[in-house]
Prior knowledge:
Radius of gyration: 16 Å
CATH architecture: 3-Layer(aba) Sandwich
Helix content: 25-40%
Strand content: 15-25%
Oligomer: single chain
Number of helices: 5
Shape: globular
Number of strands: 5
Distance between the termini: 10 Å
CATH topology: Rossmann fold
Amino acid sequence: MRVLGVSGSPRAGGNTEILVKLALQGMAERGIETDFLSLSDRPIKPCMACGGCANSDTVDCVQDDPAFEGVVERFRAADGIVIGSPVYFGSATPQTMAMLDRVGYVSHCNGNFLRRKVGAAIAVARRAGQNFTFAQINYFFLISEMIVPGSTYWNVATALDKGDVNRDAEGLQTIRVLAENMAWVMKKLVG
């Protein structure tokens, strides 16, 4: 079993990355192989709605975009997917949404390979907006027919400067419980 964790933050080593890696650590402790992808160095282009992914001989996006190379393969190889995003003006980052839009279209046009994978959203903000961003990512999971586990609270945290999230004890505990629940669900599904 494998879980892919994605930090949709443009800042490497920031609070979103800390939370996604905490979730991955919790799943690794439960015997699940982990893979981490940071979008901080990947200026992924948005979906062009060209329909190329529906008419291609390969299961991938046809855009010429080096930043997107390998992303679809990593999603396909995972049994579970954790997507984390900081809140930018009340929603997920453009990097996060560009990636999800493109992976989602490729999936829908190629047998819906995301179907029945386990997905979990994580959102972190300085003050507010986590709930909408959390829901925004979960909408992607739900329309992709993925299974979404819960935790003791919504998977959100409060932080501004790098490392501030480490002072949000409830947010950290929520992510730890999420990892435990996600690992349990993945093991039940894979058998």
